[in-house]
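anyone seen this seq b4? input:
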Amino acid sequence: MTKASDQRYLGDKSKLKIAHGVVGAVGDKGSVLKFVPYTIHALKQGDGSCLFRVVVHISSIIRGKPTLCESLQKKLANELRDKVVDELIKRQKDANGNDH
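predicted toks r here
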């Protein structure tokens, strides 16, 4: 019995499996700045704290500080997230001001 991947990657006759059948280019979809509002919304609304808690945790390790308690880690992560959102909003306003 042959595997479906063997047919897709010409594996039934070759040891080297190479994908085939996908060719083309992606056209320009415009500025990435149009996604900034979605990113800001996701950072504000989503849990998102996992990433920021990791950054806070690693930052304390790099600085040689002891592991932070969970409540302090959450507090610092929320402060960091707020700063990131503020910076994204500022950059979006700057970019929109420069477009006109």
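Residues 23 and 77 are 43 Å apart (CA to CA). DSSP finds four helices and no strands in the chain. kinda curious what u guys think
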